[in-house]
Amino acid sequence: MLYNLSFWFILFILYSILGYIVEIISVSIKSKKIVFNRGFLIGPYLPIYGVGCLIMVVFLARYRDDLLVLFIMSAFYCSVLEYVTSLLMEKIFKLRWWDYSQMKFNLNGRICLFNSVSFGLGGILVVRVIHPFLAWLVYLPSSTITIWVASILFVIFMLDVVESSYITTRLRINFNKYVHVDATAKIKKEVQNAIRKNTLLTSRLLRAFPTASYEANKKFKEFLELFDVTKREVRIQKLKAKIKEEKKKKGILK
């Protein structure tokens, strides 16, 4: 039982990492620049891809010889997964993480035809090519090693989930205090606090979802702009303070 759970969890992580790689390649091509920062979590993995791939290999393996059915079922299941994930994360964090409203044939901006077709093609690739190889790879080590590796990965993954959720919740609390209120100065102060407390992780999260928006607050874009501007201002202030300190030390030495 423990070995089986470990086996599937390692596969989940591997598929999540592959999804991360696919995502950064896709975004880098669209942005015409190298982009490494993607996803809700800090680590280089996207759980939605891990879940989607496991759904394919567990429930759709029976259709591996019928490419049309495999394509349709993969597109359907993964589109439903993406829609539900978007809906749940918005309900939990009050934040729309991605929006396909500008793309043709989208459904409430949560899913779109292009992604669904990509999921269908991905399903064929995963079920027929990738999964047999990865399953063989994970089977190679002894059961003891597999369980230990899975346990370590699980601890790292859960710590990542807790930390990322905390940062996101902090941002929501800080900003939502000023919903429907013209309080730019106060918001800016909250941004400064967020930067000082979670400079790397908070900015990483915001950069990872450049199209994120609060459904109930149209000022979220202003918040993002303030975040970038304030971050630069904080850096300038630190630089000025450092220069001033150096000059002071030189004055003392004289």
Describe this structure in words.
It is built from seven helices and two strands; from the N terminus they run αααββαααα. The protein has two domains: 2-156, no CATH class; 165-253, no CATH class. Residues 178-188 and 214-218 have low confidence and may be disordered. A two-stranded antiparallel ribbon has the order 1-2. With 254 residues, it is mainly alpha-helical. The longest helix is centred in the middle third of the chain and has 34 residues, at 143-176. It has helices at 2-31, 47-59, 67-93, 113-139, 143-176, 184-208, 220-253, and strands at residues 106-107, 111-112. α2 runs antiparallel to α3, α5 packs antiparallel against α6 (184-208) and α6 packs across α7. It is globular.
Q: How does the major sheet shape up?
A: 2 strands, antiparallel
Spatial ordering of strands, largest sheet: 1-2
Contiguous helical run count: 7
Shape: globular
Regions with pLDDT < 50 over 5+ consecutive residues? 178-188, 214-218
Instruction: Give the H and E element order.
Output: HHHEEHHHH
How many structural domains can be distinguished in the coordinates? Answer: 2
List its salient traits.
254 residues; mainly alpha; two-stranded antiparallel sheet; 7 helices; 2 strands; 75% helix
Question: What secondary-structure arrangement, pairings included, does this model have?
Answer:
Blueprint: H1 2-31, H2 47-59, H3 67-93, E1 106-107, E2 111-112, H4 113-139, H5 143-176, H6 184-208, H7 220-253
Helix pairs in contact: 1-2, 1-4, 1-5, 2-3, 3-4, 5-6, 6-7
